[in-house]
């Protein structure tokens, strides 16, 4: 597996923790989604956790 960039961006997504760029890099290298999700949960960067910085769209009620 190649090195994952931790600064800058990848395909329009920031490489900051929880912004999706690191996951996009791993996905492009062929890492299965379940493995990416497990790594995100360990880093508290999955949706709903403290380091997740997903879309800023308003939540529907």
Strand content: 5-15%
Number of strands: 2
Return the structural class.
mainly alpha
Shape: globular
Distance between the termini: 42 Å
Q: Helix tally?
A: 2
Question: What is the mean predicted local confidence, pLDDT?
Answer: 86
Structure summary:
By secondary structure, the protein is mainly α. The protein is built from two helices and two strands, in the order E-E-H-H.
List its traits.
61 residues, mainly alpha, two-stranded antiparallel ribbon
Give a structural overview:
By secondary structure, the protein is mainly α. The chain is about 30% helix and about 5% strand. The protein contains two helices and two strands. It has helices at about 20-30, 35-40; strands at about 10, 15. Strands 1-2 form a two-stranded antiparallel sheet. Strand 1 and strand 2 form a beta hairpin. It is globular. It starts with 8 loop residues before the first strand and ends in a 19-residue tail after the last helix. The mean pLDDT is about 85.
Topology overview:
Layout: E1 9-10, E2 13-14, H1 21-28, H2 33-42
Antiparallel strand pairs: 1-2
